Amino acid sequence: MDFTYSEEQQMLTDSLRRFVASAYTFEARRRNARENGSFDTHIWSALAEMGVLGLCVPTEYGGFGEGPATQAVVQRELGRALVQEPVIPGGVIAAAILKQFAPAAMQAAYFPPLASGENVFAVAYLEPTTRYRTDTAQAQARKQGTEGYVLNGAKSGVWHGAAANIYIVSAMLDGVLALFLVQRDAPGLNITSYPTMDRLAGADLTLADVPATLLTTQGLDALEVGLDHGIAAQCAAAAGAMERLIEITAEYLGARKQFGKPLASFQSLQHRVAEMVMQKELALSMAYVAAQGLDAIDIAERRRKVSAAKVITASAARFVGQQAVQLHGGMGMTDELEVGDYFKALAMVDLLLGDTDLHMERYTEAMAA
Asked: Among 110, 148, 233, 287, fewest CB within 10 Å belongs to which?
């Protein structure tokens, strides 16, 4: 897989960087989180027009049909600006599941509005008693009528769940894990939204005989494929966030003076910034490894590469975030600087889509396989 930017990728990168530089200033990001719950419909529409949401959607359904390499390029730029809209849940995870597991009629119905931004997807697979496990769902599905289904159960920690209008929900159907599509306005669905540490808005779902559409009975495989694509995108976004946070920190050290000299002139601080850069480069390299793993024919190879990338990126994100706060001194602990926003977003890398313990276990099992 070639990760050298093509001419088209470079043009897309430049366009995205110009867009987020104007639309995602520090003040705009804070205002968006405060007033819109971190989901701005105007920005969402702009991302759709630029092709970000349809990047992985097949061309016959109005998308661009790009692969993991281009997705990594885009997510790196979105991560630099801490873009708060649900691009990964919808444009990556949902797109991967629909592309590989949904029947043709469902793809034709749901892909075009996904690419245009009309549909906002979120994946509801976590439950209060199952932690990160995908194979132990307590939610139950049963058939109703000739083609319909109803769901009962509870889902928790739905990433960007407050913004979604369509949920991909996992539930047991005749002893097999299946995935279903549930509309936000479905009767019997109760949504409890709440702010998260990184200024986003998650949600818990309670389902009581909620009507649903069957997506696939290969729920475990589909969920794993979708989440692996999401993790690869998340790693690239985290690398972009680290990259920008290092730039912010370097600018601060160059402007701040101590004993009549810029802080950047002190060798010990230079070493700490150099360590931050090394960790960022390691994370970026692992984001490429994860993207490469998505094309692996061997499932164990994909699991190994994606989980390794998740663990190493989470560690690097935590290190870079902590160092940035410390190098900003007392100001780094306040809410007045955007370094705090980056620190919180990077701290969430380990918690979203499976933590380090889960992925170390998964990596070990893949190695044994």
From this structure: 148
